Structure prediction request, 233 residues.
Amino acid sequence: MRDAAGQTSTVRSSPITVYPLPDATLTGMPSANLVCTQANLTLSAPYVYLSTYAFSGPGIVSTNGNKAVVNQPGVYSVNVVSSYGCSATSQITVTNGPGSPVALSINRKTPGAALTGAATVTYEVAFSDVVNGVDATDFSVIKTGTATGTVGAVNGSGGTYTVDVTGITGAGTLRLDLNSTGTGIKDGCNNDIQGGYTGQTYDIETTAPTVTSITRGGPERPKIDILPFLLIM
Prediction:
């Protein structure tokens, strides 16, 4: 091209490099919830080579590269700056679990279906935290009709247990409940469990059908070779 003085000049172009923003997504390990048995947790951002990480928040115990150990609930953030000078920021909210454990569920396990004629059924019980002191006296079997059964073996550890109901007979419904008081269930910090819990229901039918009557379905002296009868069970 020519300039205003009529001189020829050459215009050269060069490529422009656009560098991506670093990934600053924060996650909590093993979770973002502080409970009695997990007083500290680790916040982690994806590792990017030669990047720097600046954490902020109310309860930072220590930092090491892309990780930070925290011990208080609240909002935490990290600013990640890559080796190219690009930066990104993200936040995560750390929550505080209940001060005392609670039951989360009491569900049918074996069999899974509600209708059963089994002499023994098994429930699975889940708690909000690691607990101890769980035994058969902590549960009650709630029955209707002629159905009956008793609490049997209790197995498990941590936050999940199984409870058998044995000696089931009769017909009706049967349910396993966690007692609301006097259980002695505690977490690792000696906090008593809060309240009870109402479990799922089984529909019990263990009574075999029997014949109660057989009556004629036709006249007393029929003029046919086949006599109809009505069977009632």
Summary: The first strand starts at residue 27 and ends at 29. The chain has a mean pLDDT of 87. The chain has two domains: 27-96, 103-205.
